[in-house]
From TrEMBL:
Pfam families: ASCH
InterPro entries: ASCH_domain, DUF984, PUA-like_sf
Family matches, as CDD domains: ASCH_Ef3133_like
Domain ASCH: 46-164
Protein name: ASCH domain-containing protein
Gene3D superfamilies reported in the protein's UniProt record: Sulfate adenylyltransferase
Organism of provenance: Pengzhenrongella frigida
Residue intervals passing through the bilayer: none
Amino acid sequence: MSDEVDLPDGDAVAAFWELARRQVGLGRLGVIVGPSPTESIPPPAWAFGDSPELADGLLAAVLNGTKTACSSGVWEYETATDAQGGTGTEALPQEGDLSIILDGRGHPRALVRTTSVRIAAFAEVDAEFARLEGEDDLSLEAWRIGHQAYFSRSQAAHGVAPVDPAVESSGFDESVQLVLEQFELRYPPRRSPSDDATADHISR
């Protein structure tokens, strides 16, 4: 999740959620018996990456179907920052969770549903998961290069030291634990990759 993207506008997120949930059929029962409290409250809204440019590029890849997975550091959930600037522990994503994805300006743009979650070391990420992340040339080598840089920035931002002190001054610790998440786009409908050039050659 990005710490640099503008905070979402609560009214905009609520309006997007109302539209999205009706478009994908999440509000059909509420028409008969009335909306439940969980239907009325939007799911978490967040952006990919750690910059507006990265958030926009990765969002574009989600919208055209190239990106159906994401990875984050376990430490990001253990040292989460809330809207008031406080810190605490954030729950890990679970299968079935819904999320609203923001663009680089904090505007809600997509609704996704988590389809699988697992915890693995950086070194255990394979070529198939790298391809599902939909970044750069889709190769594992490119994934490793880009995410070493990204997770190093993330650890520094969260004040997290490498797991193995021996690598603190010599390189990236590949034993760090990651949350590997796969998801499906629920809203808006997927568009062709050729419709959005900003999704091409995304790198961190």
